[in-house]
From TrEMBL:
This is Ribonuclease H-like domain,HAT, C-terminal dimerisation domain. GO terms for molecular function: protein dimerization activity. It comes from Cinara cedri. Pfam families: Dimer_Tnp_hAT. Residues 104-164 form the HAT C-terminal dimerisation domain. The lineage of its organism: Eukaryota, Metazoa, Ecdysozoa, Arthropoda, Hexapoda.
Length: 195
């Protein structure tokens, strides 16, 4: 298992910086300027220096932003505030100082400034970092074995399992190529498949 993920160690180290539990450490100690190399390679459109600054800034604002609730919004806008009217009124602004960071509107405005950080979180949330894919494959194998146990031999079962788990490979193979391959192996298949 260690060998399988050894080449990803630097990537995991970079991605660990985006964990909310690490924000306190980032606020206290900062970020190593040499970090984010793997992410920069995977996302070449990201400016590494801007990303580092945005992550530091977001880690600094996170304790305040995370405490924002709808109750805070009611306190700021007053009892006459109606959330349905808010979405219809384009000129609705916070009555407190600019970027009070206690109402949802100010928090949303602040979060929209972190464009590079948003791109990385979007990427981070789409890559599998756990063994879920492996567990899903074994679950599929169990389903296949249960349904086909009595009527299929081990070699064909393995082929079906691989086809199910490695669907990306199947997309690259055309049906005509499979038919041609089958026809090369058996004259009976040639007779049945080539009409």
């Amino acid at each position: 298992m260690e060998q399988r993920f050894a080449h990803c160690k630097e990537l995991y180290g970079d991605l660990e910086l985006f964990d909310l539990r690490r924000f306190k450490d980032i606020r206290d100690n900062g970020i190593n300027p040499n970090s984010m190399n793997e992410i920069s390679q995977l996302l070449p459109t990201i400016d590494n220096n801007v990303l580092l600054e945005q992550l530091k800034s977001f880690a600094h604002f996170w304790p305040t932003i995370s405490k924002t609730t709808l109750k805070n919004t009611d306190d700021i806008y007053g009892p006459e505030y109606d959330s349905e009217d808010y979405f219809e009124d384009d000129n609705f602004v916070c009555k407190k100082e600019e970027n009070c960071m206690k109402c949802l509107l100010c928090v949303v405005n602040i979060i929209h400034k972190y464009k590079e950080l948003f791109k990385v979180y979007l990427f981070l949330l789409t890559i599998p970092l756990t063994q879920v894919t492996c567990e899903r494959s074994f679950s599929k194998l169990k389903i296949i074995k249960t349904r086909l146990r009595s009527c299929i031999n081990q070699e064909n079962l393995e082929a079906l399992f691989l086809m199910n788990c490695e669907r990306e490979l199947l997309l690259d193979i055309s049906p005509d190529a499979v038919i041609d391959f089958m026809c090369e192996k058996s004259s009976e298949m040639l007779r049945l498949l080539k009409v």
